[in-house]
């Protein structure tokens, strides 16, 4: 009788069935896909927050230039240039202008200078996941637009 119990114990399969493995793999796949979607959404929101912060920092530098020179710079080169105030020599308010977090040259930061004496500027960035305050890069204000824009404070 003892030998029979030992024999059954040794020949019994201890493992998973094919169905159990497939169910386990399916559940893991669903959890991974949900995590990837959440991570991607978090990345987009983080880049949008950085865009808003960058634009606000540029606005602060532009207002410092206006306080020093009573005018705004005519051009800005994002990612490589500095914010140098016109007619003040080498006075820089920002050493290196920020670049769009995705290095997007098509939908990156846009700077336009308008007004009768170039006294009005607009800086815009294309949002990825959040609603903006403008419908395009010309500072056409529209609630829920795809762009986030700011104008001069003076």
Order of helices and strands: HHEEEEEEE
Strand content: 15-25%
> How many β strands by DSSP?
7
**Rg calculated over all Cα atoms:** 29 Å
Average predicted local confidence, pLDDT: 83
Structural class: alpha+beta
Helix content: 40-55%
User: Helix segment count?
Assistant: 2
Strand order of the largest sheet: 3-4-7
Quaternary structure state of the chains depicted: single chain
Instruction: Determine the N-to-C terminus distance.
Output: 99 Å
Describe the largest sheet: 3 strands, antiparallel
User: Which spans of ≥5 residues are poorly predicted at pLDDT below 50?
Assistant: none
State the shape. Answer: elongated
Write down the domain tally.
1
Explain how this protein is built:
The chain is of the alpha+beta class. The protein is built from two helices and seven strands; from the N terminus they run H-H-E-E-E-E-E-E-E. It has one domain (43-151). A three-stranded antiparallel β-sheet has the order 3-4-7, with helices on one face. Strands 1-2 form a two-stranded antiparallel sheet. A hairpin with a 5-residue loop joins strand 3 and strand 4. It is elongated and about 90 Å long.
């Amino acid at each position: 009788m003892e030998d029979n119990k030992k024999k059954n114990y040794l020949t019994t399969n201890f493992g998973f069935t094919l169905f159990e493995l497939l169910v386990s793999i399916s559940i893991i796949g669903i959890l991974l896909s949900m995590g990837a979607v959440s991570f991607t959404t978090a990345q987009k929101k983080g880049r949008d927050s950085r865009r808003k912060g960058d634009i606000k920092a540029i606005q602060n530098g532009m207002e410092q230039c206006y306080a020093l020179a009573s005018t705004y710079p005519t051009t800005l080169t994002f990612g490589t240039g500095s914010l140098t105030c016109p007619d003040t020599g080498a006075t820089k308010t920002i050493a290196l202008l920020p670049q769009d977090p995705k290095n997007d040259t098509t939908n990156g930061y846009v700077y336009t200078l308008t007004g009768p004496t170039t006294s009005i500027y607009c800086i815009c960035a294309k949002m990825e996941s959040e609603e903006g305050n403008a419908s395009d890069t010309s500072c056409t204000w529209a609630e829920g637009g795809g762009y986030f824009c700011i104008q001069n404070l003076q």
